[in-house]
Automatic annotation (TrEMBL):
Matches recorded under Pfam families: Form_Nir_trans
The species this protein was found in: Rhizobium halophytocola
Biased composition (Basic and acidic residues): 1-10
Presence of keyword Metal-binding: no
Coiled-coil residue windows: none
Residue ranges of the TM segments: 44-69, 75-94, 125-150, 173-192, 199-222, 242-261
Keyword terms, alphabetized: Membrane, Transmembrane, Transmembrane helix
Protein name, UniProt field: Formate/nitrite transporter FocA (FNT family)
Membrane topology classification: Multi-pass membrane protein
Highest taxon above the source species: Bacteria
Gene3D superfamilies hit by this protein: Glycerol uptake facilitator protein
Length: 270
């Protein structure tokens, strides 16, 4: 095994022996992952992000199916919210690119070495992954809109999810997006600490996003695109009222709050 492979195989516990704290060890593992990601080929990132966007549509699909067949009650809501977690579980376990994960992982290499070159790499991965996720979302929405996959009851549930999300004001989209971005960054951080039970951890964190009604740019994009395709909203509302404030909120929660605070905490230990 090469020296690089040995480093990649190190666990948090092993790194703790050479670093001042557990947080420093998690930071180092996350930074190494970020180094690998920002140096990946653009086309590899793009295809993985397209796959990630398509896969994330399963959050709307699973929740819509549960919403359609569960009673319209508080208990029904708590159960159908579990469907929201499916896309995240599939994307993260399959190691596909998800934009909100990248508000933490590739940011740490830039914060550790804030050069113009690393900033360019960060912008490249953000732009590539976001574009790929949006393409993947659009493909998924096109397929379930054009093809006879779901009955009218389930299709109506999809529209209900999109309508409820679009009822938020732009400020609410932003504030709830901050919460979602912070929770996803926390999830990425936690996955480096737990050695087993990753699916359960993903479920718990993303279930909180679901029951809290927090806005996520990729899942929400699927819902907004589906709503737009069926005449439930216009393009200006989808972009200005949903996409922009949610995107900024996710980035603030994941990068400016969680990543920056975690980085400063670790640097204070040195």
């Amino acid at each position: 095994m090469s020296e690089a492979e040995q480093k990649d195989a190190q666990s948090v516990d092993e790194l703790e022996e050479d670093l001042p704290s557990t947080s420093a060890a998690i930071h180092e593992l996350t930074r190494r992952d970020g180094e690998k990601e920002i140096n990946r080929d653009v086309m590899a990132l793009l295809w993985s992000a397209i796959a990630g966007g398509m896969t994330m549509s399963t959050s709307m699909i699973a929740r819509g199916i549960l919403t359609a067949y569960l009673p319209d009650s508080d208990i029904g809501f708590l159960f159908d919210a579990a469907g929201y977690t499916i896309g995240f579980i599939l994307v993260i376990v399959a190691n596909q690119q998800l934009f909100t994960e990248n508000t933490l992982t590739p940011v740490l290499p830039f914060m550790s070495e804030p050069t113009l070159r690393n900033f360019g790499k960060l912008m490249r991965i953000w732009g590539t992954v976001f574009l790929g996720n949006m393409i993947g979302c659009a493909i998924a929405v096109w397929f379930i809109t054009v093809m006879p996959v779901f009955d009218d009851k389930v299709s109506s549930a999809f529209l209900k999810l999109g309508t409820e999300m679009m009822a938020n004001s732009p400020l609410e989209m932003f504030a709830k997006g901050v919460m979602a971005g912070w929770l996803i960054a926390t999830l990425v951080w936690m996955l480096h600490r737990v050695e087993s039970g990753h699916v359960l951890v993903i479920f718990i964190v993303t279930y909180i996003i679901a029951i809290g009604g927090f806005t996520h740019i990729i899942v929400g994009a699927v819902e907004a695109m589906y709503l737009w395709a069926h005449g439930g909203t216009d393009l200006r509302q989808a972009i200005v009222d949903f996409a922009l404030p949610t995107l900024i909120g996710n980035m603030v929660g994941g990068t400016l709050i969680f990543a920056l605070m975690s980085h400063v905490q670790v640097k204070s230990d040195e």
